[in-house]
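Progress against Task 2.4 (sequence-to-structure conversion) is shown through the following example record, which the project officer requested during the mid-term review.
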Amino acid sequence: MIIALDGSSVDGSAYTAVVNLARRSPLWLDDTVSAWSTYGLALFAVLMAVGWWHARRVSATASVTALAVPFVVVVAFGVDAVLKLLVREDRPCQSLRVTTLEACPTPGDWSFPSNHAAIAAAAAVALLFVSRRLGAVAVVAACAMAVSRVWVGAHYPHDVLAGVMVGAVAALLLMSALRGRAEAAALRLAATRLRPLLVVS
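Structure tokens generated for the chain above:
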């Protein structure tokens, strides 16, 4: 097991500055950011569904690429979860004893890296392989998700940066590996009962 340095020594002052800014901000802004932080990942699921729906009208190969996106996100989440267990960094709200917008998680709910940031970044990068337009929307949304997790007090800045890197690198590697195999996979799947998932009849 790897024991992490106290996260507050990395960027605790930056975290505190953001949390204090959030406490002084208008209620409508805090409520909006909190809602996005809690429910925003649903947007990425919608973007994945839209990407697949449009891919069916392009080609079976495009559909295979689009259908791979949620699996890539799950893998990225798995990698992120393993890193959490290895590093075991306490949440900043526990180490710094600050009042945050989001309730402070119980001890054992580790902070580094951020799951939300990893999932969002993985979805954004993977969606770029499906549609540049959807991917661009997802990239902006992923950045907003990363910032929101610090704003509500759930993570240090380095937690979300690491989460973004984990998700983005995992998605880039997996989607790049799929690119050369998508056509062969599409040909095989199109000959099965899964054909309706790949092309519009």
